[in-house]
Specification:
Helix content: 55-70%
Number of strands: 4
Largest sheet: 2 strands, antiparallel
Strand content: 5-15%
Structural class: mainly alpha
Radius of gyration: 42 Å
Distance between the termini: 76 Å
Order of helices and strands: HHHHHHEEEE
Shape: flat
Number of helices: 6
Amino acid sequence: MTRQSGGIGAAALILLLTVAVVGAGAYVLVETAQGDVSAQAFSAALGQCGACFAVLLGGPMLLGLVGALVAGTSGGTRESAQSAAAAEAAPEASSPSTDAALRLLALLQQEGRLVDFLLEDISPYDDAHIGAAVRSIHAGCRAVLAERVQLERILEGDDGATVEVPAGFDAAAIRVTGNVAGAPPFRGSLQHSGWRAARITLPESSSDPRIVAPAEVEVP
């Protein structure tokens, strides 16, 4: 907006100077022809050198109009160029990477067959069969978490213990439920201590991260 106003101001100044030049030229022409600036002298001067007066009047006016057009166009061109440069410099919005999540899921599948278990329909099996299968899945997935993800409790204490939620607590880390009235601190019964990932160490993947588990083919 500032550069456009500057272009308009420059055009107005050029036109103003043009009018001044035309007026001064007419004055000089009439003075030269008759020695005064009366209407009769002006007409006589125009009759003596109509072509000269046309050039004197039209030349500066034409130059003024061209200058005004160039000033407005250059201002718009600069503004358009700057807008294009700003658009090119603006970073593209990047979507969050899912590689780390897929690598962790691949480890849970590799060590505990977690994906197979979650995608399988277990309704035909009785509790005894499911319990036996869950033991191996639990052991494998627990080993992955112990090796790759360091977890820490958000609130210390066993389930059912009385805890106090201080003022200014992080609502994303602590969810307060039940008969909540007034302002913290709150006192209540701990339903779950919560977990926070303090450190994550995942292996780098040299293949397609979308491959959670490769297909296996045994050749006899």
